[in-house]
């Protein structure tokens, strides 16, 4: 099951609701990871937008919940706009609210992406031995995201992959690759010993620094060409 809510609007479209949050990451003295608020918002937007798009949705609005202080709002919005630009999405309204009555000791941000999806775009797969798998990007969390930016799959690559028909795209979150693989299919259960890859399948992928794809054999070369060095094969034993 994906980390989204789908609400039918009519016979043609559904509303997609995807979200992300972060805490203890920012520029306050009590934060565990020290990064700019633009970076925080960019990665939070990235997570929610990837979930929305991987489902077949198109982001139409962003809602920002800011617990970092009044003076951080513009920086946070800049981070969201950076993500929208990378996805080549224009004219998406950004709204939200700031906690301005009390000054928190740590930074916290919540973000919701609202999207629309044509019902005809609903696409799921049943696991079979004929399917091939790969992870695009590497699982990173905390300071690793900043220190190893070259291993974080760009949104531009993600977007190109989602344009390929008949593949299943699944962002990886904090519970890791193995957990997400077990959410992708209802007709099988994977264990760590079943997976052969050069990545740690139990490691947190933080702000969706990587994503899983399931595809047909004849699609592999096209996917490798798009993903390049971000491509990591997973073999199911």
Structure description:
By secondary structure, this protein is an alpha+beta fold. Helix content is about 25%, strand content about 30%. Strand 5 (about 60-65), helix 2 and strand 6 (about 95-100) form a beta-alpha-beta unit. The protein has 6 helices and 12 strands. It has helices at about 35-55, 75-85, 145, 155-160, 175-185, 220-225, and strands spanning about 5-10, 15-25, 25, 35, 60-65, 95-100, 110-120, 130-135, 170, 195, 210-215, 230-235. The radius of gyration is 18 Å and the shape is globular. The chain starts with a strand and ends with a strand.
Topology of helices and strands:
Layout (H helix, E strand, L loop, with lengths): L3 E5 L4 E11 L1 E2 L6 E2 L2 H19 L2 E9 L6 H14 L7 E5 L9 E11 L13 E6 L5 H5 L7 H8 L5 E4 L4 H9 L10 E2 L13 E6 L4 H8 L3 E6 L1
Parallel strand pairs: 3-4, 5-6
Antiparallel strand pairs: 1-2, 2-7, 5-7, 8-11, 8-12, 9-11, 10-12
Helix pairs in contact: 1-2, 1-4
Describe this structure in a few short sentences.
With 237 residues, the protein is an alpha+beta fold. The protein has helices at residues 37-55, 73-86, 143-147, 155-162, 176-184, 220-227, and strands spanning 4-8, 13-23, 25-26, 33-34, 58-66, 94-98, 108-118, 132-137, 168-171, 195-196, 210-215, 231-236.
What attributes characterize this protein structure?
single chain; 237 residues; alpha+beta; five-stranded mixed β-sheet; five-stranded antiparallel β-sheet; globular
The major beta sheet can be summarized as:
5 strands, mixed
- Percent of residues in helices: 25-40%
Mean pLDDT: 94
Q: Which value, in Å, is the CA radius of gyration? A: 18 Å
Series of secondary-structure elements, N-terminal to C-terminal? EEEEHEHEEEHHEHEEHE
What is the end-to-end distance? 23 Å
User: What spatial form do the alpha-carbon principal axes imply?
Assistant: globular
Q: What is the spatial order of strands in the main beta sheet?
A: 1-2-7-5-6
Structural class, from secondary structure content? Answer: alpha+beta
Q: Strand fraction band? A: 25-35%
DSSP strand tally:
12
Question: How many alpha or pi helices?
Answer: 6
Catalogue the unreliable spans: none
């Amino acid at each position: 099951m994906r980390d989204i809510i789908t609400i039918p609007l009519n016979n043609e479209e559904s509303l997609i609701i995807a979200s992300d949050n972060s805490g203890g990451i920012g520029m306050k003295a009590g934060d565990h990871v020290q990064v700019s608020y633009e970076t925080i918002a960019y990665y939070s937007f990235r997570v929610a937008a990837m979930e929305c798009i991987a489902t077949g949705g198109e982001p139409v609005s962003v809602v920002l919940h800011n617990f970092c202080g009044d003076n951080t709002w513009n920086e946070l919005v800049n981070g969201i706009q950076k993500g929208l630009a990378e996805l080549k999405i224009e004219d998406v309204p950004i709204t939200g609210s700031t906690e301005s009555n009390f000054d928190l000791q740590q930074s916290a941000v919540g973000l919701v992406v609202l999207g629309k999806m044509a019902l005809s775009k609903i696409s799921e797969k049943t696991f079979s031995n004929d399917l091939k798998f790969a992870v695009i990007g590497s699982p990173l969390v905390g300071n690793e995201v900043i220190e190893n930016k070259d291993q974080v799959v760009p949104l531009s690559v993600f977007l190109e992959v989602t344009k390929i028909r008949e593949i299943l795209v699944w962002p990886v979150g904090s519970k890791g690759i193995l957990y997400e693989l077990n959410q992708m299919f209802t007709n099988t259960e994977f264990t760590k010993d079943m997976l052969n890859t050069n990545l740690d399948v139990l490691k947190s992928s933080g702000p969706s620094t990587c994503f899983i794809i399931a595809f047909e054999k004849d699609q592999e070369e096209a996917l490798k060409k798009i993903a390049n060095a971000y491509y990591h094969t997973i073999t199911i034993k």
